[in-house]
């Protein structure tokens, strides 16, 4: 297959890549960094890599760390100038912790984040003390591990396991310029070009790589979320029990959960036909959030009031269902997707980041086996293409149903109909909800991070 590049002046004459085992040094003769390249040189020179991961979010960093643990190096391109510092927190369940254990960052995060003991469900109409239902994980879902982890802490813990320089910041992918036998040509906003045998698209929900692979745009599901992180730095910290607090209204729900002794995460989900204009003034965002839940239980309002304005964000909720036969494959040539770039899902099950972590382990295992295969002389591209297909075969049955289920749960809990909400508060929550079966999906275990056997030599 000839290299089909959209840029006429560009040609690739490098010899085929050999291996990407981590102990091999990256070929440095024609490597050009953002800092060192003059604009003229940037447009001519090609940086060559074996594995490039686009996006230093949860999926990208976890994939890089997993690969590294299997002896395979990768370069991570991140558009930001540093790791994302904001973004409040992510509730991680047992399946997410299994992955963090496998890649060696769980204990560090456990020491900084409270273990959540249970769930308290209330109605917005009642007083702070009126509880519809209260569960403990120990009784209803023994062995469950739930913690709300600061996104910043998660990203920093993952990044700390990578060698210096593994993440290239200020490196925004502009486009995929072509694919050929030697790999895929990436074009960056600053004019750099990178030829990589393998490209892992971890560029999030608005992934330009997914667009290039002809995935449909993520679908807005009709509700939006506010999130915030309250701080209790002075004195004795916050007064809340380590429980998830859910409060249900009509077409509106909110919740809060302690993250650490000094931080509490909260959220509001509200119906809205279209996402509307982006609000950039943080104080206006917080006012809008408080207005939505005016008159709701006092503890929620206290937590929101204790949140710095710049720690409040508003996000439209989107997903993309990977219908068999309709969604494109997860890989195209040497390019593969992971995390939200492949399967954006609504946060109703708290599984987006957990699944991104699972993807990372499964993909890294597959790619590492292919790297070993390519080392044993199986040729350059085919072992990786097969590794990507194997990854998709393993992950699709997991992520498609979860995406659909998260969407359906969201549609149910966002109902506005007064009779339906009364039935929810009077019958469904107090009598019918069972935590164990509801959290069944968190029992998933994608296994240890051990290299799969390389394919046999021809
Ligand atoms: C309201 C809300 C609440 C949530 N709560 C939870 C929860 O409790 N538990 C849970 O498990 N999940 C939760 N999620 C889901 C979770 O946030 C995502 O699933 C997770 O962040 C996906 O990680 P990712 O690495 O795929 O994408 P991201 O975290 O979005 O990372 C993508 C990275 O790619 C970079 N990037 C993008 N484009 C380019 C480019 N062109 N060039 C270079 N870099 C680029 C971005 O800067 C970013 O660093 C929630 C989501 C929302 C919206």
UniProtKB/TrEMBL annotation:
Signal sequence, renumbered to the chain: none
A single GO molecular function term of this UniProt record: monooxygenase activity
UniProt keyword terms in alphabetical order: Monooxygenase, Oxidoreductase
Domain FAD-binding: 50-212, 329-376
A matching Pfam family: FAD_binding_3
Top-rank taxon: Eukaryota
Protein name as catalogued: FAD-binding domain-containing protein
């Amino acid at each position: 297959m000839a290299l089909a590049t959209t840029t006429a002046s560009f040609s690739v004459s490098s010899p085929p890549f050999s291996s990407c085992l981590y102990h091999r040094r990256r070929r440095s003769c024609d490597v050009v960094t953002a800092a060192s390249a003059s604009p003229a040189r940037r447009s001519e020179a090609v940086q060559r890599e074996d594995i490039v991961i686009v996006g230093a979010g949860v999926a990208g960093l976890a994939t890089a760390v997993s690969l590294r643990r299997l002896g395979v190096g990768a370069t991570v391109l991140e558009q930001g100038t540093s790791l994302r510092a904001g973004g409040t927190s992510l509730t991680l369940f047992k399946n997410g912790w299994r992955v963090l254990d496998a890649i060696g960052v769980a204990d560090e995060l456990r020491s900084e984040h409270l273990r959540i003991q249970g769930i308290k469900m209330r109605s917005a109409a009642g007083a702070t003390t009126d509880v519809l239902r209260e569960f403990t994980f120990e009784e209803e879902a023994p062995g469950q591990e739930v913690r709300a982890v600061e996104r910043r802490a998660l990203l920093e813990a993952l990044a700390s396991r990578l060698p210096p320089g593994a993440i290239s910041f200020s490196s925004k992918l502009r486009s995929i310029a072509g694919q050929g036998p030697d790999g895929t040509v990436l074009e960056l906003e600053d004019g750099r070009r990178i030829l990589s045998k393998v490209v892992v698209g971890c560029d999030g929900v608005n992934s330009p790589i997914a667009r290039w692979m002809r995935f449909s745009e993520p679908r807005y599901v009709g509700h939006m979320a506010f999130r915030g992180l309250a701080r209790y730095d002075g004195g004795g910290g916050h007064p809340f029990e380590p429980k998830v607090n859910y409060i249900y209204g009509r077409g509106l729900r909110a919740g809060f959960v302690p993250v650490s002794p000094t931080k509490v995460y909260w959220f509001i989900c509200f119906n809205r036909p279209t996402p509307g204009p982006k609000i950039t003034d943080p104080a206006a965002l917080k006012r809008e959030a408080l207005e939505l839940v005016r008159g709701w239980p006092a503890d929620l309002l206290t937590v929101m009031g204790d949140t710095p304005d710049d720690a409040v964000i508003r996000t439209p909720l989107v997903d993309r269902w990977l219908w068999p036969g309709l969604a494109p494959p997860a890989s195209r040539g040497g390019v593969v997707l992971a995390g939200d770039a492949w399967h954006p899902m609504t946060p109703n099950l708290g599984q987006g980041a957990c699944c991104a972590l699972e993807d990372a382990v499964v993909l890294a295992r597959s790619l590492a086996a292919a790297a070993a295969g390519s080392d044993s002389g199986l040729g350059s591209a085919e072992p990786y293409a097969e590794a990507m297909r194997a990854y998709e075969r393993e992950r699709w049955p997991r992520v498609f149903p979860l995406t659909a289920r998260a969407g359906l749960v969201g549609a149910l809990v966002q109902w506005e109909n007064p009779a339906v909400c009364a039935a929810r508060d009077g019958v469904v929550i107090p009598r019918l909800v069972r935590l164990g079966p509801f959290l069944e999906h968190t029992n998933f275990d994608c296994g240890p991070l051990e290299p799969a056997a390389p394919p046999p030599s021809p």
